[in-house]
Amino acid sequence: MSYQYYAPSGPMIIELQCGYSTGHGWKHIQAEHQSQWQDRINAAGGGGNWDDLMSWSNETILGWSMTDVPDGTNKRCVSAPIMMYDRQGTFLFTFWPTVAVSTNNLRVITSIPTTSTNCNSV
């Protein structure tokens, strides 16, 4: 899956690769955060697939401004609000997905459905 991000230097493509379970990408997100993503879907009434919500959230918030992760690595992070509604259009809750991206190879490291802006923990 590819996401387009508009950096000050121009558009960039950020890839969500399969990765591996301990380091980065879809397999890491599945191993470490699938249940958290599924919990967001269940809280909104269920009936959806966790990785569809994760991918859509990534695509939506990667358009926001990224910040440097304060651990001295080549990571950038974005955390932005996603409002969830039920099928009747009633507002349910807001959560703040957090996406960490490697600036070396422009790939998604992780995507976490946090409940508040949280780029300090990725």
Number of DSSP helical runs: 2
Tell me the fraction of residues in β-strands, as a range.
35-45%
Percentage of residues assigned to helices: 25-40%
Order of helices and strands: EEHHEEEEE
Over the alpha carbons, how many angstroms does the gyration radius reach? 14 Å
Distance between the termini: 21 Å
Taken together, the total number of domains comes to 1
Mean pLDDT: 87
Structural class: alpha+beta
> Based on CA inertia axes, which overall geometry fits?
globular
**DSSP, total strands:** 7
Biggest sheet, in brief? 5 strands, antiparallel
Weakly predicted, low-confidence segments? none
Question: Which key phrases capture this entry?
Answer:
122 residues, alpha+beta, 5-stranded antiparallel β-sheet, two-stranded antiparallel ribbon, 2 helices
